Amino acid sequence: MVHGPQVGRCVVCGEMTDPFSNATCLQCGGAYHLALRQDVPGKDCGQVWINDEFQTLEYACDTCLGRAPTARAEASGADGAEPRGYTRRQGVRAADLLRQKRAGRERRTR
Questions:
Q1: Residue 83 reports pLDDT greater than 50
Q2: How far is residue 100's CA from residue 42's CA, in Å, rounded to a whole number?
Q3: Is 46 within 8 Å of 23 (Cβ atoms)?
Q4: What single string gives the DSSP state of each residue in 38-96?
Q5: Residue 5 covered by a domain
Q6: Residue 84 belongs to what domain range?
Q7: CA distance linking residue 90 with residue 12, whole number of Å
Q8: What 3-state class would DSSP assign to 97?
Q9: What is the largest CA-CA distance in the chain?
Q10: Is the pTM for the entire model greater than 0.70?
Q11: Number of independent structural domains in the chain
């Protein structure tokens, strides 16, 4: 069975992604805009970087990186209320978020 390109609703801005600007956040699992090609114009609602330790690509949306409020919170008109799920984090690097996630996984498996 052949599946079409993955698209979804961006967890940062709430708009639909397209096949040339779609990534999945490793922290929250949501889709977000990420320009995957330099020759196609696109917007970035997150980042991708190389993990120095494992030499792998790691992806995170701006919401999990603490750079943007969640699209759900903006859509619901939340007045300073904490959104459910992953919330905005201030001053935390993406690599630190992933280390925390791995540490939590390791604690649960013990």
A1: no
A2: 31
A3: yes
A4: SSS----SEEEEEETTTTEEEEEETTTTTSS--HHHHHHT-SSPPPSSS---SS--HHH
A5: no
A6: 23-109
A7: 16
A8: helix
A9: 47
A10: no
A11: 1
